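Quick look at the format.
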Amino acid sequence: MAKEPRAWQRMLSGRRLDLLDPSPLDVELDDIAHGLARVARWNGQTQGPSIFSVAQHSLLVEAIAAHLDPAMPPPPRLAVLLHDAPEYVIGDIISPFKAVIGNAYKAVEGRLLAAIHLHFGLPAEPPAALKRFIKRADRQAAFLEAIHLAGFSREEAIRIFGRPEPMPRTVLDLIEPWPIETAQRRFRDRVEDLRLAAAG
């Protein structure tokens, strides 16, 4: 009899996260921060002595979102910050490869994100308007990363990610890659800050 393939991952917290049926009870912030700080954006094809991690990218996207909508309340800002959180389990698969894989990847990613949202007291499925806003901020971040870190020309980045919007220095300062420990700590602290603000 064929052995059923393993579809769960053991986390450093001791949790066992099932990719086919992830439970919010098996989601831990420390696991997310640890994983995202060690996952490289752009498959590691970025300039600098440190990787540009998904944890730092997430903080960049949240900073862009705060610039675009300064009045955004803490719960949707937390959803922005967690938009790539499933990658602590499944890694950062580049967009061209996602197009090759198709819907199977999206289904796994969607289930993980729903479990993560529920763990942090957010709706499993964000409203459509928030999804569009996150995509807008995410594309702005991708443009900045592309031209500052990944070797794209400005013209090429505009063709792929759209024309950029002006960003303040506080946002642009987040482009310089951080050491893993810094990215892990700053991501974790920001999630905690927004979670406390949302609860209050």
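Next, a different chain entirely:
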Amino acid sequence: MSTWPFLSQHGDEILRATAEHVWLVAATMALAIAIGVPLGIVVARRPWLGKPILGAANFAETIPSLALFGFLLPAPWIGERAERIAITALVLYALLPIIRNTAAGIGGVDPAVREAARGMGMTSRQILFQVELPLSFSTVLAGIRVATVLTIAIATVAAAVGAGGLGEFIYRGLSMVNNPLIFAGAIPAAALALLADFILGLLERRLRPAR
């Protein structure tokens, strides 16, 4: 059976797997942003912590995805459910671009702007939330954009631990040497990545500070 007839005949299964994939990516990105942005702020404000934080994020990025999923299987609580394993591993992969871009964005704010804010009597917290983060938001968003596309791609491996998603079709297709099955997972995953990249890229350009 060729690819397109297969896709049309199994539309419901593909939609279900796509919804699972989107849920995994959304949960991952929510956690990665909640962890990565504060860590990026710490790196920007405390440069001496940059090496250990970025070093740990870099190290996680170098671990092969299947190996990382396997390492998490015996972990207490995390290893009890496939979704927890998948989301934990995906968060570790997504952190590096978010931390790095957040630190770069805040570090790139003009020092004269900070001094002007201090001269107006703003506290460090006010400067962060009212000056630095708004001015660096497009740079932070660029990191989130990279992390999102990366997560959509790596989330296909989540099927190896039973977490579902579009990777199910890819693994089944590889085991059966069935190209339509492989494409049933690969095409929607690629489309999701392109769509996320386009939407976040558009937001990034719109939110970039005027020069």
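The chain is about 80% helix and 0% strand.

See the schema section for token definitions.
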